[in-house]
Design brief:
Structural class: alpha+beta
Strand content: 5-15%
Number of strands: 4
Radius of gyration: 13 Å
Distance between the termini: 16 Å
Strand order of the largest sheet: 1-2
Number of helices: 2
Length: 94
């Protein structure tokens, strides 16, 4: 899942999990940030670039992986959710 944080709102989606995928989660990946008085500052953590180039990205929880599955099929990682909530980010309910 690609998340661009330019406010205090983080978007994440979940839906039904397929059989055999009980250990898969949707992770929050910080691709950049916007300082209060500045423009968006990108980080070297692009989900789209990682999918194209088969390179790993790092989630808030610390997991490193090469993204390739539809994140909408899996529940949000509880550790990523806890970190985002502790940072004051708003996550969608569900």
């Amino acid at each position: 899942m690609s998340i661009q944080v330019d406010s205090d709102v983080v978007q994440a989606t979940t839906s039904q999990v397929d059989e055999g995928d009980h250990e898969r989660f949707t992770h929050i990946v910080l691709e950049g940030y916007t300082p209060k008085d500045g423009e968006f500052v990108p980080l070297e953590n692009s989900v789209v670039g990682a999918m194209i180039n088969a390179t790993p990205v790092k989630a808030l929880c610390g997991k490193l992986w090469v993204p390739g599955r539809d994140p909408q099929k899996y529940p949000l990682c509880p550790t990523c959710k806890e970190i985002a909530t502790a940072l004051g980010w708003k996550l969608p309910s569900g």
